[in-house]
Amino acid sequence: MEDLELSRRLRRLGRVVTVPAAVRVSGRRLLARPIHSTLVMRLLPILYRLGVPARLLAQLYGDVR
Predict the structure, then answer these.
(1) What pTM value is reported for the model?
(2) Are 35 and 41 within 8 A, CB to CB?
(3) For the chain, is the Cβ count within 10 Å smaller at the N or the C terminus?
(4) What is the predicted pLDDT for the residue at 65?
C-alpha cells in the first residue's frame, strides 16, 4: 500500500500528473486463484483507507514468493 500512501501525500502537495508508461508483470498469481486475487486486490485499498493495520493487510495479501 506504499504506492497508495505516496499518492495520497503527493496529492496534498499539488497536482498529480499521470505519465503514460507500460509495466510488464507476471499473471501467475491471478491465473492460479482468479477469484481470490480479484477480491483481494479490490478490497485491500478499501480496508487500508478504513484503517486496517498493515500487518493484517499483508496476511490477506499473502507471500508472493
Answers:
(1) 0.62
(2) no
(3) C
(4) 66
